[in-house]
Amino acid sequence: MHPDEDLLSGILKNQDWALREIYKTQYNPIKRMVYAFRSTRLEPEDIFQEGLTRVILNIRAGKFRGDSSIATYLNSICRNICLKALSEPATATMPIENNPGPHEPGNDSYYELLGFINKLKKQLGGGCREIIDLRFNHQATNPEADPQVHGLSSFDGIAKKLEITAENARQRFKRCMDRLRKLVIEHPEYHTLFD
Amino acid sequence: MIEDFLSGALSPDEEREFRKRLDAEAHLAKAYSFRSKIALYWNEALSYETTMKQVKEVVDKERNRKRKLATYLYAASVVILIGVVVFFAQQPKRNAIDGQFAASEKDTSTNSISPLSTNEQPEKGSQFAVPLEFLLNDTLVIHRTTDVESVEKIRILRLSDHGVVGRYLLKEGADSLLIPLKGMQPGSYQWIKAGTPSSGDFIIRENSMPNKN
Hints:
The complex is a heterodimer of chains A (195) and B (213). By secondary structure, chain A is mostly helical. Chain A is 64% helix and 0% strand. Chain A has helices at 5-12, 16-36, 44-60, 70-87, 108-124, 126-136, 138-141, 155-162, 166-186. The radius of gyration of chain A is 20 Å and the shape is globular. In chain A, 26% of the residues are buried. In chain B, the strands form 3 sheets. Chain B has a 5-stranded mixed sheet, with no helix packed on it. In chain B, strand 1 (105-107) and strand 2 form a beta hairpin. The chains are: A mainly alpha (195), B alpha+beta (213). The interface between A and B is large, with 42 and 30 residues.
C-alpha cells in the first residue's frame, strides 16, 4: 500500500480536501525551492499551481507509478517547471523542434501544448468554443455516454442542444475549425505541429 | 467530408473515394491531419483547464484563510501589546496612589481630616477611587497646591445635583484651609480648586456611624 494512499484516492475521486492537504503540507517547501533559484521570473504560487495540476492529471492518467511520495513527485515536477522556465529566453518562445520528447501526458511539452490550446479557445471566443466542445465531447450531447470514451457528437445532437438546424451546426462547426486552423498556422511555435 | 468520414457517415464507396483523395491531395491530407490531432488534445486541454481552475480555487481559498488568520493574530497581539503597555504605564501611578491612601489618616483627636496636600482623587474607574468618608462634626482640610502662592478659590459641589454648596478662599500665605462640615447634609461631595485640575470626592455620613480607623 502506498503511504499516500488516501491522498491518491482523494485525487482520483476529485475531492477538494486532498488538494487542500497537499497545499497545506507542500506549498512552503515548494516556495523555498523556488526561492532557492533566486530568479524574479519564477512565481512560487504559479509554479505550485502548475505543478499540482500536472501531478493530478498524471495520477489520473496512470502516469504516477507510486515509486516516490506525492511530495517528492510534486517537488520534482515543480523543479522541472522552474528549470524549463529559466532555460528559455525571457521573451522569445522555444522553437518546436527543440521541444523534448513527444506530446504525451507526463512531459513538459504536453502540458505546454494543452496550455496553448486553451489560449486558442479563448481567442476563438465563446460561440466557436461551444460548438467545438459539443462536437468533440460526445458526453455533452449524450449524458449517458461513457465519460472515459471520447467520441464525436452528431450534428443532429448538437443542433438539438443549440436549437438550430443540423446543417447550421455543421456550417458553424466548419467555420470555427477553419478559424482554429488559421490561428494554429499563424503561430510561430506550433504551426507545424498538426501537419 | 472529413466530418462525415470521421463520423462513419460515408458509404463504403464514398469512404474509398475519400481515402484516395487523402493520398492524392496534400491540402486535404493536412486538413485531415489537423482535424484528427486537434480533437485528441481539445478534450485533454479542457480537463487541464478544469483541473487548473480547481487547484487555483483551493489555493486562493487556503491563502485567504491563512491571511485572515494572520490578521486576527496580528490584531490580537496588538491588543495584548496595548494592554501590557497600559498596565505597566499605570503601575507607578497606582503605587503613588497606594502611598497616598496609606498615608491618609483621620485626625480623631481634633475631629478633622488631614488629607495630604496632594489629596487629589485618583482617576475615576480605578479601584482606588474610593472617596474619603467624613462625619458631620469632621473638618475637611484642603492644603495649598505645591508651588502655588497666590489665593486659591475652592468650591464644594454636591454630586447629586452638582449644586455649589460652598465657596472658600485659601488666602495668600496660608498653607491650608479648614472647612467644617457641620451644617452640611450627608451625601457625596466634591471639592474643586478653581483654575486647576485639583479636585477630590468625599462623602459625609451621619455622626452615628462608627469612626473608621
